[in-house]
Amino acid sequence: MKIGILQTGHLPPELLSTYGDYPELYERLLDGYGFDFAAWAVVDMEFPDSVHDADGWLITGSRHGAYEDLPWIAPLEEFVRAAFETGVPMVGVCFGHQIIAQALGGRVEKFDGGWAVGHHSYRFADDGTLALNAWHQDQVVTRPPGATLLATSDFCENAALAWDDRALTVQAHPEFTDAFLDGLIAHRGRGLVPDDRLDAARAALGQPTDAPAIADRFAEFFKRPRS
Q1: How many other CB atoms are there within 10 angstroms of residue 68's CB atom?
Q2: Is residue 156 annotated as a catalytic residue, yes or no?
Q3: Does 94 participate in catalysis according to the annotation?
């Protein structure tokens, strides 16, 4: 099965030599499930020719906001709606979660409660409480029509959403390991995120996360039989 990764941002240059860019993070997260991968840097206006160029789509995180007036946002929303209408499955993570929700009629904005960084717990309706690394200020504040709420937290109401077998999205970052998060704090966080949030996130490094459970969920979703 071919998974197309729609890259919506670039990682800090200081991290590229160690981790690669966003596509490599997701390829490592989903390693071992039998997927083939191809990536399109939509952030640089590189788009697939068709929603059928892959069997499923994964939209990455980004430092950009889904509501920003950037030349690639509207074409990406159009792509999301086309994939949704034709039933090509989509997974969205952080920005990907937000842009799918926005394209399908939801609303995204900067959360007045500030940033979520590092180890956070989320209540999944069907899987109990799962811990994941987070990195965001924007949130889906209004769910789109037809979206099912899968997970919530005290900080993020709409933490995971689903649209039957067409889309599955999460706000947190299962692809962020602690080592990667530590690098992101050092090379992107200072001066952007309040120091107290960064210090708390760094102090929590080493606590286990349930990223493998989310990877399992993504893989099961992509492989689900569809008519």
Answers
A1: 10
A2: no
A3: yes
Q: Is pLDDT at 227 greater than 90 in this prediction?
A: no
CA atoms of 43 and 40, how far apart (whole Å) = 9
- One DSSP character per residue, 141-191 reads EEPPTTPEEEEE-SS-SS-EEEETTTEEEESS-TT--HHHHHHHIIIIIBT
Counting DSSP H helices and E strands in the chain, the numbers are 7, 11
Of residues 97, 120, 156, 175, which has the active-site annotation? 175
* Residues ≥6 apart with Cβ < 8 Å to 154: none
Amino acid type, 80: V
Q: For tokens 């979660």, what's the residue?
A: 97
User: 121-165 pLDDT, tens per residue?
Assistant: 999 998 899 999 999 999 999 999 999 999 999 999 999 999 999
Q: Of 97, 119, 120, 173, which is the active-site residue?
A: 173
Query: Of 94, 97, 119, 136, which is the active-site residue?
Result: 94
| pLDDT at residue 151, rounded to an integer | 98
Q: Is 218 helix (H, G, I), strand (E, B) or coil?
A: helix
Residue 105: DSSP 8-state: T
